Amino acid sequence: MVRLEVVSVIDAVTADLRARVLSGDLPPGLALVETDVAGRYDVARPTAKAAIENLVRERLLERSAHKTARVMRLTPADARDIYRSRALIEAEALRVLARTGIVPPEARAANAEIAALTDASPRDAVDPDMRFHASLVDAIGSERTTRMYRSLVSEVVLCMSQVQGASLLPTEVIVAEHERLLELIEAGEGDAAAALLGEHIGRARERLVERLGGEPGPEASAPSSVLRASAGQEDTAGA
Q: What share of the chain is helix, strand, coil (3-state, %, to 5)?
C-alpha cells in the first residue's frame, strides 16, 4: 500500500505561492491581495489570508500594519544579515562534524546532483544546494539547532534563488568548494572547514549585495582558493 501525504488546502496554496516567489514568478514588491489569491486558487478568502500569513511569517512576504502583503524586496542589509545568521550555525556544525570525521551521505548526494546539472538552468542548483547545507546541520543531531536553522531556510533560499537566477556563481565553483568542505570534515579540520565556508558563502553574499544595489565587499571578486589550489597542483604535475 502506498501512503499519500495529506496536504491541507492552506498548505497547498502556501506551497504554490512560495514556489512562485522563489522562482521569481512573483517579483519583489508585488502586492498579493487576498481576493486575488482566493480567486486564482478558487478557495475561500480566509484560506487565502492564512496562506499569505504563512509566507509573512517565513519573511517571503512583508506586511506593515493594515497594509496589503507584498513580496519581500531584499536590501543589501537583509542579504548580509541572512548570510551572517546562517554562517553562525553552519560554521559550528562543520566543527562538530569534523570531530567525528563523519560526512552525511545526504550531503554527498546533493553535491553529486549539483554536479550533474551541466546543461540545466543555474536556478536548478538552488534546491540541492540548500539540501547540501541543511544536511550538514541536521547531521549534528540537535533538534533545536535544526529548528533554528530551518527558521532561516525560506530566506536563505530566497537569497540563493536571486544569486542563481542572475547566474552570479558558476556551478563548478559551488561543487568544488562543497567537495572540499566534505574533505576537510573527514580530515577532522573543523576550523579550516569553517574558514572555507566563510569564503564560500561570503562570495555569494557580496555578489548578491552588489546585485541589490549595495557596495560589495572584497569577497565578491576574490578567486576560489579551492580552484586556485587545484590549478596549482595541475601546474606542478605538468612541470
A: 70, 5, 30
